[in-house]
Amino acid sequence: MITIHRIIAVLEKSYTPPKSFLTHQSPFQLLVATVLSAQCTDVRVNIITQSLFKKYRMPEDFARAPLRQIAADIRTCSYFNTKARYLQELSRMIIRKFHGRVPDTMEELMQLPGVGRKTASIILFVAYGKREGIAVDTHVFRVARRLGLSKGTSPEKVELDLMKAVPREKWGELNPLFISFGRDICTARNRTCEVCPFRKECPSSNALGRKDLGKAGK
Ligand code: SF4
After folding, report:
1. CATH class, 27-128 region
2. Rounded distance from Cα 123 to ligand 1 centre (Å)
3. What is the pLDDT of residues 118-157, one digit of tens each?
4. Residues of the chain with CATH 1.10.340.30
């Protein structure tokens, strides 16, 4: 069976991803960008935040702005109405409850509207260097299942399995590594197993005629 140590070692040789693919200059900007990135590409989010961060610099700017204006300013993002509400509500909570600073604990971050474990894990690792969880997005979910690291059918279950298997000092690094690999080789559609370094041992290897275990429900 393929070990997590080998997977990480091989991927670290192939990729040197940034801690986050989202452009940001502060924990608050990272939080805004991560909330926007749900069901939206990082490329799109980085285009949106280029102008957004010139107009909205602090939580106070989102707290004061008319909700309709925020929605208009992020309208090219998926679910822009819902995300505009999240941005305003989380900004108000940061001002009211956390003295204007993005909190640095899982418990406090998850109190913010629109913030779940995935977003909180990213903020904790990227902004504060804390490894409290493993951010399971669509790439991490698919790659972990394909490689047989989890049979979980929800991000929460996959995260639990990964937290047991992956050494804690790699919890933060796993997300950008799996994203890089998931975009490059182990892609959602048409995975390119024939060029994959794990093709001879992966339980989903197309090169061995195995079925795709990546999607839950299969
Ligand atoms: S062998 Fe195929 S399914 Fe398995 S990790 Fe590589 S690309 Fe993904």
Report:
1. mainly alpha
2. 29
3. 999 999 999 999 999 999 999 999 999 999 999 999 999 9
4. 27-128
Does 198 sit in the ligand 1 pocket, CB within 6 Å? yes
Active site residue 151: no
Top mutation candidate among 10, 141, 190, 193 for ligand 1, by most atoms within 8 Å of CB: 193
Contact 19, 179 (CB under 8 A): no
45 CA from centroid of ligand 1 (Å): 28
Please state, in angstroms and rounded to a whole number, the distance separating the CA atoms of residues 161 and 189. 24
Q: Does domain 4-16+135-205 have CATH number 2.40.50.140?
A: no
Return d(Cα 91, Cα 56) in angstroms, integer. Answer: 11
Q: Distances from the Cα of 157 to the Cαs of 76, 131, 151, 173, 182, in angstroms? A: 32, 18, 8, 19, 19
Residues of the chain with CATH 1.10.1670.10: 4-16+135-205
Tokens of 31: 């939080």
Distance 146 CA to ligand 1 centre (A): 7
pTM score: 0.94
Can you give the length of the chain in residues?
A: 218
Active site residue 137: yes
